[in-house]
Amino acid sequence: xxxxxxxxxxxxxxxxxxxxxxxxxxxxxxxxxxxxxxxxxxxxxxxxxxxxxxxxxxxxxxxxxxxxxxxxxxxxxxxxxxxxxxxxxxxxxxxxxxxxxxxxxxxxxxxxxxxxxxxxxxxxxxxxxxxxxxxxxxxxxxxxxxxxxxxxxxxxxxxxxxxxxxxxxxx
Length: 171
Description:
72% helix, single chain, mainly alpha
């Protein structure tokens, strides 16, 4: 009887390990794709935003001591990222990679109920975030257009959930 239980436990454990690998593999590939951007040097806008964010971290005020037409949210992202990981290329690209990996995780968690095929649901982060990390040119990294996708997606999912709720909010 113990041998049967042991065999059943081993089968169950192997299924759990296989399921875990199917979940971990897309994120491992995502991080590998993102690791290729870490050492890329800054170009035009990135260098200017990194310089401005570092100046802001030392007390400068945007639009008074430092002028650029970029919106303040971009400087806010770079300021937080630079404060946590340093204002270097590797530090800021690391923060971008963590931010995009979090976006990939949210994609997986929120798309899973809508996608019948589990393999496709697990691939969503690779399709959305991984393609950007692999296909973006150095001057496209860290731009507002790439960073704004995450909060826009969260707003869309939140609006859908509120609209689908049986007890809708009344104003």
